[in-house]
Amino acid sequence: MDSKADRDLLSARQVLKTEAQALDALSASLDGPFVEALDLIEKSSGRVIVTGMGKSGHVANKIAATLASTGQPAFFVHPAEASHGDLGMILLDDVVIALSNSGETSELSDIIAYTRRHRIGLVAMTGRAGSTLAEAADVALVIPDSPEACPMGLAPTTSTTVMLALGDALAVCLLERKGFTAQDFHDYHPGGKLGQRLLKVANLMHGGDEIPLIGQDAPMSAALIEMTAKSFGVVGVRDADGRLAGIITDGDLRRHMSKDLLDRMAGDVMTAGGVTVLPSDIASEALAIMNERKITTLFCVEDGKPVGILHIHDCLRAGVA
């Protein structure tokens, strides 16, 4: 073996040794806050929203995927997109896990402020106990101070490995608490791409009290409250028989903006009719409709009555394409 190959192997082994030592340090450092994070997630009736920027964002995406595949509803929200509308994807009973090695990632500021304003649980995963993120969080999971495996000490290597492992630890502990079984895991992986393509709207839609609905004779002030509370950016308008008469979107609000808007009735502002789907429809077909119409939600109806609402992110999180 030539000297170049020897150097390569030596360097590679040093990377793995550095990261392994950091993982050992992480294991030894686990204490009360880790259990507090588990309790916060387990007690929540919502989803886990995982977020981070740059390399931390890639790790956050994987943590969300691992949580979701092991029985804990979870998905990734990009912090920059959150500042441009996706904060509406975070519900009041969710828990947010925010990743930032420095704890000072500026792109996270809007998500942090949103969770504090609405008292949404916030778990920080960071390398600095005194950082802005750690100080703001309900629970701070501080990873041990370990050198990056990069010879310049700059490229995120050790830090991202440790965060990824910490996310795995959370996921495994949660599945053990829930008694998640091998059969449950199989149910969450029903058949790869084919299984995803054959998912029905009923498998993904939100139902019951999650559906934003208002009566035709309700004032627009009530419609706005319902739109805000349900976070879909739309509200369905029902007629006297309970059938979906139309919808009100952000666009409708802009088109009817006037001093007396809040005094008008929902039936006066709504767009009559609207595109709907059935719960028995294939989710990929519903996604195609949303892409074609350039809309993000569809009401699901049976006999003309709304029984659910489907958001484009529900399809994307489920891998529907």
Instruction: Report the end-to-end length measured between terminal Cα atoms.
Output: 48 Å
CATH architecture of the largest domain: 3-Layer(aba) Sandwich
The secondary-structure class comes to: alpha/beta
Give a short account of the largest sheet: 5 strands, parallel
CATH fold description of the largest domain: Rossmann fold
Strand content: 15-25%
Order of helices and strands: HHEHEHEHEHEHHHHEHEEHHEEHEEH
Helix amount: 40-55%
Search tags:
elongated; CBS-domain; 12 strands; alpha/beta; 15 helices; four-stranded mixed sheet; five-stranded parallel sheet; 321 residues; Rossmann fold
Describe this structure in words.
This protein is α/β, with parallel strands linked by helices and 321 residues long. It has two domains: 185 residues, Rossmann fold (3-Layer(aba) Sandwich); 122 residues, CBS-domain (Roll). It contains 15 helices and twelve strands. The strands form three sheets. A five-stranded parallel sheet has the order 2-1-3-4-5, with helices on both faces. The protein has a four-stranded mixed sheet with strand order 6-7-8-9. The longest helix has 27 residues. The protein starts with a helix and ends with a helix.
Short structural summary:
With 321 residues, the protein is α/β, with parallel strands linked by helices. 46% of the residues lie in helices and 17% in strands.
Furnish the topology, listing elements before pairings.
Layout: H1 3-29, H2 32-43, E1 48-52, H3 55-69, E2 74-76, H4 79-82, E3 95-100, H5 109-117, E4 121-126, H6 132-136, E5 139-142, H7 158-178, H8 182-187, H9 192-197, H10 201-204, E6 213-215, H11 220-230, E7 234-238, E8 244-249, H12 250-255, H13 266-269, E9 271-272, E10 276-277, H14 283-293, E11 297-302, E12 305-311, H15 312-317
Parallel strand pairs: 1-2, 1-3, 3-4, 4-5, 6-7, 10-11
Antiparallel strand pairs: 7-8, 8-9, 11-12
Helix pairs in contact: 1-7, 2-7, 3-7
